[in-house]
Amino acid sequence: MDNNYLIPANSKKSQLILGFFNMFDLTVFIVGVGISVFLLMIIKSNNVTVMLGLASPAIIAAFLVAPVPNYHNVMTLIGNVYRFYTGRKKYYWKGWCVRNGERNK
Hints:
This protein is mainly α. The chain contains four helices and no strands. It has helices at residues 23-42, 48-54, 56-64, 74-86. Helix 1 runs antiparallel to helix 3 (56-64).
């Protein structure tokens, strides 16, 4: 086989719960849905906008754990964008030709 390996595209899915969630994602989703259900049970209203406002924790949690191509989910994408814009902007070369203060002998 000439040392050619074929790795299936979904090899990481077996490590996820239901193929989509890790433990933190599932916790965020369950907490968001739990808060929404609690608010909907406590506050009685016939107004659609109030009901959508009460359901907003579940909607936001579902949006955060929704899968995105090339990333795990929206929460991971937002974290990477945040780290890119707030991280270090000046990068220092540390390649194979850097001496690190040493002199050639």
